[in-house]
What we know:
This protein is mostly helical. The chain is built from 21 helices and five strands. The longest helix has 27 residues.
Amino acid sequence: MVLRRKFLINLVLILCFTVLGFAVMGYHPGIEDDGVYLSAVKSDLNPALFPHDAEFFRLQLQATVFDRWIAGFIRLTHIPVAAAELLLQLGTIALTLLACWSIARRLFPELRAHWAGVTLVASMFTLPVAGTALFLVDPHLHPRSLATAIVLLAVSWIIAGKRWQAMPLLLLAFVIHPIMAAMGISFCFFLTMAMSEPVHSWIDSWSAERAGSVAAAFTPLAWIFEPQSPVWKKALDTRTYCYLYKWQWYEWLGALAPLFLFWLLWRLAQKRGETLLARFALAVFAYGVFQQVVAMTMLGFPSLVRLTPLQPMRYLHLVYFFLALVAGSLIGKYLLKAAVWRWALFLIVCNGSMFAAQRAEFGSSDQIEWPGQPQSNPWLQAFAWIRVNTPTGAYFALDPRYLEAPGEDYHSFRALAERSQLADAVKDTAVVTQVPELGPEWDRQVEAQKGWKNFQLEDFVRLKAEFGVDWVLVSYPAPAGLPCRWHNGSLAVCQIPR
């Protein structure tokens, strides 16, 4: 009876922190990477969508079952897509916090440490991870977030000595998001070593030569040394976060400082006799050093430039998760203790600062974009009208840099309007870095849209003749000669005349 009561209390607390973290982080379906994943899910459910441009999301997702799994869940439950995405986002957050609580519970004996760790993680979901262009958790459903939650659960099981039970979890994470799961598998290797051997016996024997041999084992692929095309390199050059040696000093500090802090924690925990915490800190430090060496090797030689899109510095994603969790636990243990006013101040400062940052980031959009609710963002209003009032096979052209437009907040036209579009010069660029064969067509379409802000009727007619586009989304008032079907104060939806 006592155990059951504790379980229910812990479950309620996890759900409370899930709601709090969700509210602070916000919810913005269809932004950034979700432009790829959400488009793929909708295409799986309705193959008639995107007859002109499906390759700009379909080819990238060949290595994951995520979109098909989501589509299968929607077919099975008959839940609308928007509601299913919201439900699964909340489930991902809850699983993440459950895994973090499980890790903290094993590393720290104090109850207040467990929940302070969970509190800090929940408030820091949108914490930027050094120069990697990642957050701890995205404000939309993303396979990386789900795979990370599963990896964290596997980590908690390894700490508990259930190594074999962790393996199916890592395999599941791999089929959802291979790159992040590979990072998780790497960390779990170091964690297993730290938990199963005397602290110094394996780290002292881990020579640079041995590390190099392991790194080489991950890169015996002939395609690495194939010459890159100019178009592929052009696309890659827009992803500045891929180039480690072009990072700013503060980005390097954000990468290396956490490793030093975990080294320091390892030494201090050892002296205090906190063996389990010391071994965990050692595992994070060793994993970070090894992955940093691998990243600097992969990104340091022009002959290995084809490896750049693997973004090896994203190993920091897990490091930052552990940094937030352990830092919060230590704050709870040594600073907050049982003082109610300290806990209240802790909650207000952490959540209030991150909430303010999110409002600054998405100032033109609602904090939570609820399914089915009218949106205040004029771009989302346009996308909604297009989704309902244009033919499924409509082919749109719009500013190739529309994602960067003031107030657009990086919402994907393709995912939210559910219509085909000519390639853009922002998000589709990232797709090209992963799928080089798309490069020539992407470049042709983007080049054809140069000078968009000065386009007149004859330019739109040219796009129609060259690519077959028959609709445009333009600034209001529209250029002369375009018959427009809808507009708000900022945008107009128009057809290109025959």
